[in-house]
């Protein structure tokens, strides 16, 4: 998270109003709920995991055992089972 000096970003009146509540500290301004990104959307990791899970399911359907998939993808058999049964 990047910190921005309020005096640079906000109008003087708003800075003075905020100083009535907090001075020299940090304040978090949350994003509007509708604009929030889900976990992994910004980095692309969510999409990457979905693609990996699709490959796991496809390989399982083509005859790969859960043990083989666990070794190949460095996951536990429990994790492989969960991926397969959620598809």
User: What gross morphology would you assign?
Assistant: rod-shaped
Percentage of residues in DSSP E strands: under 5%
Unreliable stretches: none
Helix content: 40-55%
Gap between N and C termini: 35 Å
Helices and strands, in N-to-C order?
Answer: HHHHH
Q: Overall mean pLDDT score? A: 91
Count of discrete alpha- or pi-helical segments spanning 4 or more residues: 5
Rg of Cα set: 23 Å
The total beta strand count reads: 0
**Biggest sheet, open or closed, and with what strands and sense?**
none
What is the SS-derived class?
A: mainly alpha
Compact overview of the structure:
The protein contains five helices and no strands.
Word description of this protein:
The structure is a single chain. The mean pLDDT is 91. The chain starts with 5 loop residues before the first helix and ends with a helix. The protein is mainly α. Helix 4 (66-73) packs across helix 5. The chain is built from five helices and no strands. The protein has helices at residues 6-9, 12-19, 45-61, 66-73, 77-86.
């Amino acid at each position: 998270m990047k910190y921005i000096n309020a005096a640079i970003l906000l109008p003087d009146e708003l800075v003075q109003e905020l100083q009535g509540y907090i001075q020299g500290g940090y304040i978090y301004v949350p994003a509007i709920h509708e604009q929030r990104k889900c976990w992994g959307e910004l980095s692309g990791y969510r999409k990457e995991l979905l693609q990996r899970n699709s490959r796991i399911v496809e390989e399982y359907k083509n005859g790969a055992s859960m043990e083989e998939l666990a070794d190949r993808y460095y996951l536990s058999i429990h994790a492989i089972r969960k991926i397969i049964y959620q598809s």
